[in-house]
Amino acid sequence: MEKTEYSRFRCFDDKNVENVHDLAYTFQVSFFAMCRIATFPWAALEKALLNSSSDVILDVLRKTCLHPICREKPPSVKYRRLFLSELIKRHELNASEPLDELYDALGDVIGAEEDALCYKTYLLPSGEAVSIEENVAVISEGTTGLVTWEAALYLAEWALEHPDIFTGRTVLELGSGAGLTGIVVCRTCKPTKYVFSDCHRAVLERLKNNVALNGLTRPDSTGVSVLTQELDWESAQKDQLGRIGADTIIAADVVYDPDIIGCLVRLLAELLTCKGQQSRPEAYISSTVRNPGTYSCFKNELEKAGLKHLVLTHPVTQVFPYNRITSIEMIKVHC
Ligand SMILES: C[S@@+](CC[C@H](N)C(=O)[O-])C[C@H]1O[C@@H](n2cnc3c(N)ncnc32)[C@H](O)[C@@H]1O
Fold first, then answer.
1. What is the DSSP letter of 42?
2. What are the mean pLDDT values of the chain's consecutive 10-residue runs (335 residues total)?
3. CATH code at 244?
4. Which domain holds residue 201?
5. Residues with Cβ within 6 A of ligand 1?
Protein backbone atom coordinates (compact mmCIF):
# COMPACT_ATOMS: atom_id res chain seq x y z
CA MET A 1 0.00 0.00 0.00
CA GLU A 2 1.34 3.44 -0.84
CA LYS A 3 2.05 6.16 1.72
CA THR A 4 0.28 8.88 -0.22
CA GLU A 5 -2.96 6.97 -0.08
CA TYR A 6 -3.30 7.32 3.69
CA SER A 7 -4.25 10.99 3.63
CA ARG A 8 -7.23 10.22 1.44
CA PHE A 9 -8.46 7.48 3.68
CA ARG A 10 -10.45 9.18 6.39
CA CYS A 11 -13.74 7.44 6.45
CA PHE A 12 -15.00 4.07 5.51
CA ASP A 13 -18.52 4.40 4.22
CA ASP A 14 -20.39 5.17 1.01
CA LYS A 15 -20.89 8.87 1.72
CA ASN A 16 -17.21 9.63 2.05
CA VAL A 17 -15.89 7.93 -1.04
CA GLU A 18 -15.03 10.82 -3.31
CA ASN A 19 -13.61 9.12 -6.39
CA VAL A 20 -12.86 5.75 -7.93
CA HIS A 21 -9.38 5.67 -6.41
CA ASP A 22 -10.74 6.31 -2.88
CA LEU A 23 -13.26 3.58 -3.51
CA ALA A 24 -10.72 0.87 -4.35
CA TYR A 25 -8.55 2.00 -1.45
CA THR A 26 -11.47 1.84 0.99
CA PHE A 27 -12.19 -1.68 -0.22
CA GLN A 28 -8.53 -2.56 0.31
CA VAL A 29 -8.36 -1.30 3.91
CA SER A 30 -11.67 -2.94 4.84
CA PHE A 31 -10.72 -6.23 3.12
CA PHE A 32 -7.37 -6.65 4.88
CA ALA A 33 -8.92 -5.79 8.27
CA MET A 34 -11.63 -8.38 7.52
CA CYS A 35 -14.45 -5.89 8.15
CA ARG A 36 -17.99 -7.20 7.79
CA ILE A 37 -18.74 -7.55 4.07
CA ALA A 38 -22.02 -5.61 4.49
CA THR A 39 -20.07 -2.52 5.65
CA PHE A 40 -18.11 -2.11 2.38
CA PRO A 41 -19.18 0.86 0.21
CA TRP A 42 -21.21 -1.28 -2.21
CA ALA A 43 -23.59 1.52 -3.23
CA ALA A 44 -20.61 3.69 -4.28
CA LEU A 45 -19.17 0.74 -6.22
CA GLU A 46 -22.44 0.20 -8.08
CA LYS A 47 -22.60 3.91 -8.89
CA ALA A 48 -19.03 3.81 -10.20
CA LEU A 49 -19.86 0.75 -12.32
CA LEU A 50 -22.72 2.62 -13.97
CA ASN A 51 -20.48 5.57 -14.77
CA SER A 52 -17.35 3.71 -15.86
CA SER A 53 -16.34 0.36 -17.30
CA SER A 54 -15.40 -2.73 -15.27
CA ASP A 55 -12.00 -1.11 -14.60
CA VAL A 56 -13.17 -0.16 -11.11
CA ILE A 57 -13.77 -3.84 -10.31
CA LEU A 58 -10.31 -4.74 -11.64
CA ASP A 59 -8.82 -2.00 -9.48
CA VAL A 60 -10.64 -3.37 -6.39
CA LEU A 61 -9.51 -6.91 -7.25
CA ARG A 62 -5.86 -5.88 -7.64
CA LYS A 63 -5.94 -4.05 -4.31
CA THR A 64 -7.52 -7.00 -2.47
CA CYS A 65 -7.39 -10.67 -3.56
CA LEU A 66 -4.62 -10.11 -6.14
CA HIS A 67 -2.49 -7.86 -3.90
CA PRO A 68 0.86 -9.34 -2.70
CA ILE A 69 -0.29 -9.01 0.97
CA CYS A 70 -3.09 -11.44 0.16
CA ARG A 71 -0.52 -14.04 -0.94
CA GLU A 72 1.71 -13.58 2.11
CA LYS A 73 -0.78 -12.78 4.89
CA PRO A 74 -4.25 -13.63 3.64
CA PRO A 75 -7.62 -13.06 5.29
CA SER A 76 -9.44 -16.37 5.87
CA VAL A 77 -10.51 -18.56 2.94
CA LYS A 78 -14.18 -18.21 3.92
CA TYR A 79 -13.87 -14.43 4.09
CA ARG A 80 -12.24 -14.20 0.65
CA ARG A 81 -14.94 -16.47 -0.79
CA LEU A 82 -17.74 -14.31 0.66
CA PHE A 83 -16.06 -11.13 -0.54
CA LEU A 84 -15.54 -12.41 -4.10
CA SER A 85 -19.10 -13.79 -4.30
CA GLU A 86 -20.46 -10.36 -3.33
CA LEU A 87 -18.15 -8.60 -5.79
CA ILE A 88 -19.29 -10.92 -8.61
CA LYS A 89 -22.94 -10.38 -7.66
CA ARG A 90 -22.58 -6.58 -7.76
CA HIS A 91 -20.66 -6.77 -11.03
CA GLU A 92 -23.24 -9.02 -12.70
CA LEU A 93 -26.06 -6.68 -11.62
CA ASN A 94 -24.42 -3.60 -13.07
CA ALA A 95 -22.16 -4.61 -15.98
CA SER A 96 -22.88 -6.29 -19.29
CA GLU A 97 -19.75 -8.42 -19.77
CA PRO A 98 -18.53 -11.10 -17.33
CA LEU A 99 -15.00 -10.55 -16.03
CA ASP A 100 -12.69 -13.61 -16.19
CA GLU A 101 -10.36 -12.25 -13.48
CA LEU A 102 -13.20 -12.38 -10.95
CA TYR A 103 -14.02 -16.02 -11.67
CA ASP A 104 -10.31 -16.99 -11.68
CA ALA A 105 -9.90 -15.41 -8.23
CA LEU A 106 -12.99 -17.18 -6.93
CA GLY A 107 -11.72 -20.48 -8.40
CA ASP A 108 -8.55 -20.11 -6.31
CA VAL A 109 -10.49 -19.98 -3.03
CA ILE A 110 -13.38 -22.31 -3.86
CA GLY A 111 -11.20 -25.42 -3.56
CA ALA A 112 -8.95 -24.10 -0.78
CA GLU A 113 -9.03 -25.77 2.60
CA GLU A 114 -10.57 -23.77 5.47
CA ASP A 115 -7.98 -22.74 8.03
CA ALA A 116 -8.30 -22.10 11.76
CA LEU A 117 -5.94 -19.11 11.37
CA CYS A 118 -6.03 -15.96 9.30
CA TYR A 119 -4.25 -12.60 9.09
CA LYS A 120 -5.65 -9.13 9.60
CA THR A 121 -3.56 -6.29 8.23
CA TYR A 122 -3.87 -2.64 9.29
CA LEU A 123 -2.28 0.39 7.70
CA LEU A 124 -0.39 2.98 9.77
CA PRO A 125 -0.28 6.68 8.85
CA SER A 126 3.31 6.12 7.62
CA GLY A 127 1.98 3.64 5.07
CA GLU A 128 3.54 0.69 6.91
CA ALA A 129 1.37 -2.37 7.43
CA VAL A 130 0.85 -4.15 10.75
CA SER A 131 -0.23 -7.77 10.32
CA ILE A 132 -1.73 -9.84 13.10
CA GLU A 133 -2.17 -13.60 12.95
CA GLU A 134 -5.49 -14.46 14.58
CA ASN A 135 -7.83 -17.35 15.10
CA VAL A 136 -10.84 -17.35 12.79
CA ALA A 137 -13.13 -18.16 15.75
CA VAL A 138 -13.72 -15.26 18.17
CA ILE A 139 -13.43 -17.49 21.23
CA SER A 140 -11.25 -20.58 21.04
CA GLU A 141 -9.02 -22.60 23.33
CA GLY A 142 -11.01 -21.13 26.23
CA THR A 143 -9.77 -17.55 25.69
CA THR A 144 -10.83 -14.28 24.10
CA GLY A 145 -7.18 -13.36 23.49
CA LEU A 146 -6.56 -14.92 20.08
CA VAL A 147 -8.33 -12.19 18.10
CA THR A 148 -8.11 -8.37 17.99
CA TRP A 149 -11.00 -6.55 19.70
CA GLU A 150 -12.37 -3.14 18.75
CA ALA A 151 -11.15 -1.53 21.98
CA ALA A 152 -7.60 -2.50 20.92
CA LEU A 153 -8.02 -0.61 17.62
CA TYR A 154 -9.52 2.32 19.54
CA LEU A 155 -6.60 2.44 21.99
CA ALA A 156 -4.08 2.18 19.13
CA GLU A 157 -5.83 5.04 17.31
CA TRP A 158 -5.83 7.10 20.52
CA ALA A 159 -2.08 6.41 21.00
CA LEU A 160 -1.36 7.72 17.49
CA GLU A 161 -2.85 11.05 18.61
CA HIS A 162 -1.03 11.06 21.99
CA PRO A 163 2.49 9.71 21.34
CA ASP A 164 3.88 11.87 24.19
CA ILE A 165 2.17 9.58 26.72
CA PHE A 166 4.51 6.79 25.54
CA THR A 167 7.66 8.46 24.22
CA GLY A 168 10.73 7.70 26.33
CA ARG A 169 8.67 5.69 28.84
CA THR A 170 8.48 2.12 30.04
CA VAL A 171 5.06 0.85 29.04
CA LEU A 172 3.34 -2.22 30.46
CA GLU A 173 0.33 -3.60 28.60
CA LEU A 174 -2.05 -5.85 30.54
CA GLY A 175 -4.01 -8.55 28.67
CA SER A 176 -2.27 -7.83 25.35
CA GLY A 177 -4.10 -10.61 23.49
CA ALA A 178 -2.98 -10.86 19.85
CA GLY A 179 -0.81 -7.73 20.25
CA LEU A 180 -2.24 -5.08 17.89
CA THR A 181 -2.20 -2.11 20.32
CA GLY A 182 1.35 -2.66 21.54
CA ILE A 183 2.71 -3.26 18.05
CA VAL A 184 1.21 0.06 16.89
CA VAL A 185 2.59 1.87 19.98
CA CYS A 186 6.08 0.39 19.45
CA ARG A 187 6.09 1.26 15.76
CA THR A 188 4.87 4.82 16.17
CA CYS A 189 5.28 6.26 19.70
CA LYS A 190 8.95 5.58 20.58
CA PRO A 191 8.64 4.10 24.09
CA THR A 192 12.00 3.12 25.61
CA LYS A 193 10.73 -0.26 26.77
CA TYR A 194 7.47 -2.06 26.05
CA VAL A 195 6.28 -5.08 28.02
CA PHE A 196 3.47 -7.10 26.44
CA SER A 197 1.73 -9.41 28.93
CA ASP A 198 -1.03 -11.94 29.22
CA CYS A 199 -1.82 -15.01 31.29
CA HIS A 200 -2.90 -17.60 28.73
CA ARG A 201 -0.34 -20.02 27.27
CA ALA A 202 -1.74 -20.05 23.71
CA VAL A 203 -2.21 -16.25 23.76
CA LEU A 204 1.39 -15.69 24.87
CA GLU A 205 2.63 -17.93 22.06
CA ARG A 206 0.54 -16.06 19.46
CA LEU A 207 1.60 -12.72 20.95
CA LYS A 208 5.29 -13.63 20.62
CA ASN A 209 4.75 -14.70 17.00
CA ASN A 210 2.95 -11.45 16.15
CA VAL A 211 5.62 -9.35 17.86
CA ALA A 212 8.26 -11.13 15.75
CA LEU A 213 6.12 -11.00 12.59
CA ASN A 214 6.14 -7.20 12.87
CA GLY A 215 9.89 -6.96 13.35
CA LEU A 216 9.83 -5.90 17.01
CA THR A 217 12.32 -8.53 18.12
CA ARG A 218 14.99 -6.66 16.15
CA PRO A 219 15.66 -3.63 18.43
CA ASP A 220 17.44 -1.89 15.54
CA SER A 221 14.15 -1.70 13.65
CA THR A 222 12.34 0.49 16.23
CA GLY A 223 14.84 1.29 19.01
CA VAL A 224 12.35 -0.12 21.54
CA SER A 225 13.34 -2.83 24.00
CA VAL A 226 10.44 -5.28 23.74
CA LEU A 227 9.55 -8.07 26.19
CA THR A 228 6.64 -10.48 26.26
CA GLN A 229 5.88 -11.81 29.74
CA GLU A 230 3.39 -14.00 31.52
CA LEU A 231 1.55 -11.75 33.99
CA ASP A 232 -1.60 -13.05 35.62
CA TRP A 233 -3.59 -10.32 37.39
CA GLU A 234 -4.55 -12.80 40.08
CA SER A 235 -1.04 -13.85 41.00
CA ALA A 236 1.31 -11.06 39.84
CA GLN A 237 4.15 -10.61 42.33
CA LYS A 238 5.47 -7.28 43.56
CA ASP A 239 9.02 -8.13 42.50
CA GLN A 240 7.91 -8.81 38.88
CA LEU A 241 6.06 -5.48 38.81
CA GLY A 242 9.06 -3.75 40.39
CA ARG A 243 11.44 -5.18 37.77
CA ILE A 244 9.18 -3.89 34.97
CA GLY A 245 9.07 -0.41 36.55
CA ALA A 246 6.23 0.82 34.33
CA ASP A 247 5.63 4.56 33.90
CA THR A 248 2.58 3.98 31.70
CA ILE A 249 0.17 1.06 31.91
CA ILE A 250 -2.32 0.36 29.14
CA ALA A 251 -5.03 -2.23 28.57
CA ALA A 252 -7.78 -2.76 26.00
CA ASP A 253 -10.98 -4.69 26.58
CA VAL A 254 -10.08 -6.17 29.93
CA VAL A 255 -13.28 -5.17 31.79
CA TYR A 256 -15.81 -7.79 30.75
CA ASP A 257 -15.91 -10.38 33.53
CA PRO A 258 -17.23 -9.32 36.98
CA ASP A 259 -15.19 -12.12 38.53
CA ILE A 260 -11.83 -10.64 37.53
CA ILE A 261 -12.55 -6.97 38.29
CA GLY A 262 -11.34 -7.33 41.90
CA CYS A 263 -7.88 -8.66 41.01
CA LEU A 264 -7.49 -6.27 38.07
CA VAL A 265 -8.18 -3.29 40.36
CA ARG A 266 -5.80 -4.62 43.05
CA LEU A 267 -3.08 -4.96 40.41
CA LEU A 268 -3.72 -1.42 39.12
CA ALA A 269 -3.54 -0.09 42.69
CA GLU A 270 -0.21 -1.87 43.17
CA LEU A 271 1.16 -0.50 39.88
CA LEU A 272 -0.09 3.05 40.38
CA THR A 273 0.83 3.71 43.99
CA CYS A 274 3.87 5.85 43.61
CA LYS A 275 6.07 4.54 46.40
CA GLY A 276 9.44 6.14 45.86
CA GLN A 277 8.96 6.55 42.13
CA GLN A 278 10.06 9.84 40.63
CA SER A 279 7.20 10.11 38.17
CA ARG A 280 3.65 9.06 38.96
CA PRO A 281 2.61 6.10 36.82
CA GLU A 282 -0.67 6.40 34.92
CA ALA A 283 -2.95 3.82 33.35
CA TYR A 284 -5.03 4.18 30.19
CA ILE A 285 -7.82 1.66 29.76
CA SER A 286 -10.17 1.37 26.78
CA SER A 287 -13.30 -0.69 27.26
CA THR A 288 -16.16 -1.80 25.09
CA VAL A 289 -19.12 -1.24 27.40
CA ARG A 290 -21.18 -4.37 26.75
CA ASN A 291 -22.73 -4.47 30.20
CA PRO A 292 -23.04 -1.06 31.92
CA GLY A 293 -23.44 -2.81 35.31
CA THR A 294 -20.07 -4.58 34.98
CA TYR A 295 -18.39 -1.38 33.83
CA SER A 296 -19.74 0.75 36.69
CA CYS A 297 -18.73 -1.98 39.14
CA PHE A 298 -15.15 -1.58 37.77
CA LYS A 299 -15.26 2.18 38.28
CA ASN A 300 -16.69 1.77 41.81
CA GLU A 301 -13.90 -0.68 42.68
CA LEU A 302 -11.31 1.82 41.40
CA GLU A 303 -12.75 4.44 43.73
CA LYS A 304 -12.82 2.05 46.68
CA ALA A 305 -9.13 1.28 46.03
CA GLY A 306 -8.38 5.03 46.21
CA LEU A 307 -7.77 5.37 42.46
CA LYS A 308 -9.11 8.35 40.51
CA HIS A 309 -10.33 8.07 36.95
CA LEU A 310 -11.00 10.53 34.18
CA VAL A 311 -13.00 9.82 31.01
CA LEU A 312 -10.96 10.86 27.95
CA THR A 313 -12.20 12.15 24.62
CA HIS A 314 -12.43 9.86 21.58
CA PRO A 315 -9.70 9.79 18.96
CA VAL A 316 -10.49 12.34 16.24
CA THR A 317 -8.88 10.88 13.15
CA GLN A 318 -10.21 7.59 11.87
CA VAL A 319 -7.21 5.41 11.09
CA PHE A 320 -8.43 1.87 11.56
CA PRO A 321 -11.72 0.51 10.29
CA TYR A 322 -14.00 -0.55 13.13
CA ASN A 323 -17.61 -0.02 14.10
CA ARG A 324 -17.86 3.55 15.45
CA ILE A 325 -21.31 2.90 16.86
CA THR A 326 -19.93 0.47 19.44
CA SER A 327 -19.84 2.06 22.88
CA ILE A 328 -16.14 2.31 23.74
CA GLU A 329 -14.82 4.41 26.62
CA MET A 330 -11.27 5.31 27.48
CA ILE A 331 -10.26 6.29 31.00
CA LYS A 332 -7.08 7.51 32.60
CA VAL A 333 -6.52 5.98 36.04
CA HIS A 334 -4.11 7.44 38.58
CA CYS A 335 -3.54 7.60 42.33
C1 LIG B 1 -11.02 -9.50 25.34
S2 LIG B 1 -9.33 -9.95 25.33
C3 LIG B 1 -8.55 -8.44 24.86
C4 LIG B 1 -7.24 -8.68 24.16
C5 LIG B 1 -6.61 -7.42 23.57
N6 LIG B 1 -6.27 -6.48 24.61
C7 LIG B 1 -7.56 -6.79 22.57
O8 LIG B 1 -8.28 -5.85 22.97
O9 LIG B 1 -7.61 -7.24 21.43
C10 LIG B 1 -8.91 -10.04 27.09
C11 LIG B 1 -7.47 -10.44 27.34
O12 LIG B 1 -7.23 -10.42 28.74
C13 LIG B 1 -6.49 -11.57 29.10
N14 LIG B 1 -6.78 -11.90 30.52
C15 LIG B 1 -7.95 -12.29 31.06
N16 LIG B 1 -7.81 -12.56 32.37
C17 LIG B 1 -6.51 -12.32 32.66
C18 LIG B 1 -5.74 -12.44 33.86
N19 LIG B 1 -6.28 -12.86 35.00
N20 LIG B 1 -4.44 -12.10 33.80
C21 LIG B 1 -3.88 -11.67 32.65
N22 LIG B 1 -4.55 -11.57 31.47
C23 LIG B 1 -5.86 -11.90 31.49
C24 LIG B 1 -6.98 -12.64 28.16
O25 LIG B 1 -6.06 -13.72 28.04
C26 LIG B 1 -7.15 -11.86 26.86
O27 LIG B 1 -5.97 -11.85 26.11
1. H
2. 40 56 90 96 91 86 96 96 96 84 93 90 93 90 90 97 97 98 97 97 96 88 92 95 96 96 97 74 97 97 97 93 91 96
3. 3.40.50.150
4. 138-334
5. 143-145, 148-149, 151-152, 175-178, 198-200, 203, 232-234, 252-254, 260
